[in-house]
Write a structure and sequence with these properties.
The chain is mostly helical. It has three helices and no strands.
């Protein structure tokens, strides 16, 4: 068992993240949407402050 796991390539961070997102479903999408909204709000805020 340990032999087969050492020979296999470890999945990349992206593959693990995508697998996790598929398993968690809606929660991941909600967190992604909140993160995207937060980033957009910060960028708009900075643009407003620096005009």
């Amino acid at each position: 068992m340990s032999d087969s796991s050492t020979k296999e390539e470890k999945p990349s961070y992206t593959k693990l993240a995508m697998r996790n997102m598929v398993q968690k479903g809606g929660t991941s999408l909600k967190h992604f949407a909140l993160s995207a909204f937060g980033l957009l709000a910060v960028l708009i805020g900075l643009a407003y402050l620096t005009r």
